Amino acid sequence: MTAARPLSSGLCSVTFRQLDPVQVVSVAAAAGLEGIEWGADVHVPAGDLKAAAAATRATNDAGLRVASYGSYLFADEASRAAIGPVLDTAEALGTDLIRVWCPFGVGPAAARPDRDAVADVLAEWATAAVGRGLTLYLEFHGGTLTASAASTVALLAQVGATNVATAWQPPYWATRSPAADDGADLAVLAPWLAHVHVYEWAADLTRLPLAAGVDHWPAALRAAAEGRADLDRFALIEFVPDDDPALLAAEAATLRGWLAR
User: Are 110 and 145 in contact (CB under 8 A)?
Assistant: First the structure.
């Protein structure tokens, strides 16, 4: 069995929606991060190939990698035919990994027809993506079929496509013991795991410095290292306290220290 590649450190561009792409690249590079996931909501809208080319150029010129394309494409009937511009934009960014979402309101306890409808759309998208050498990865998120590790794996098995993976983030929507439950989640997800989205929130969702998660994040990142061996995977900082770019350097130093262990 091929060993997974070490997780690289990176940034979701949506962390700093208030910055333009050149500024996002600048703060990421200054913080010593290795890559950027470019988000579709502000920085690189789907179908805007000029914005994608400019983001790629800025990223590469700074010595960073494009980690993935963070689309906001939901696997529902209304979006069924919307995959084309997303695939085009990922290609223009020079990445082979695209984040997609399961629709809200169809959760782990959903009826079989509702689950089947999501799986069918994802399977169609996977077929469209595989011909271009592209892989989709699911946002791991509450209120959707990826709200739990078990439901995520069941969906991936139902879709049955080798070019569909999943992300993981701390499931703030669930009651849990991070030190125990995060590792259990990641052990279940490991064969399908792409990126990890990294941040630290209090129980009331107050944003904390990442260092406050020292009791559970290092172990979670070690567990996440057992993910998909065929993917260039990142631990991506997604939120910082107060959305403050000045805090990124310290957050990145914490993350890089944990990854280096």
Answer: yes
